[in-house]
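A student in our group prepared the protein record below, which I am reviewing. Thanks in advance; the entry in question is below.
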Amino acid sequence: MKTTGSRIGNYSGEDAHNYEASAHPRQPVGIEDMLRFLTDGGQKPLKDQVVADLPCGSGLYVPFLAAKKLILADFSEGMLGEAKQVVPNPQDRELVSFQADLTETLPIESKSVDSILCNQFIHHVTTPEHGPERWKGLGKVFDSFHRILKPGGRLTISFCTREQVAHSYWTHSIFADDAIAEELTYYPDREELSGLLVQAGFQASDIGFDVIRQDLQADIWTIDPMDPSVQSGDSGFRFALKTSERRAEMQSKWQALQADPDALHSRKAAARDFVADKGSSTLCLATKA
């Protein structure tokens, strides 16, 4: 399966099932704000909408999408299969699902969707090795979003800014410096994301942002960053584990923190304070004119 980004995994079978059902599951952070935006200001109730979850992943947000018609698509057939298992009351709604590369043309009719959710995905199609072209795949995704939305349709995008990745995840503070620097190149800031949406056809005045002050993982403050189950559930560790030198530096930094409980407490406290102030992630809210 062709993909523009290099971080998409075509999970299948047990890998897809374990992605969210691990010892360190993610939480559907921001869902209340998303649903409020998708249904307020004269929008139809969700039960009367056509809603697309793109990509749906393993279905973390799907149980909340009790729409008239629900469209699920993902790069991974395994993930898509997991998401279909958690559709709320499937007998009460029309379900359309398909595997697809979201950077290519989606088989969804133009101006047919009321609402789109896109959660913690955009860093997976960023290609920093392409220099100025690193956002090209993401731009194609936003082009599709704008095309399939009805006039007045709404889009929510949850993502992490570079600042949030650098400061809200205490576990990443033990990464080698060059691993952190590489990781951050995959994340846009608000201005870059807004610019891509404008290029896709959205109006700058119809794009807003808010912060999500919830932890993406419920046990983020107690986990052991050297635990393989933690590393497999956090794509940031891909960079920390990329070379033997980086792995050794991470191990050394973690051992130093373990030997100094006050330093470890301070590191976690700083991350907590950052999350309380500037959030663990960001919610972009856009309306098609």
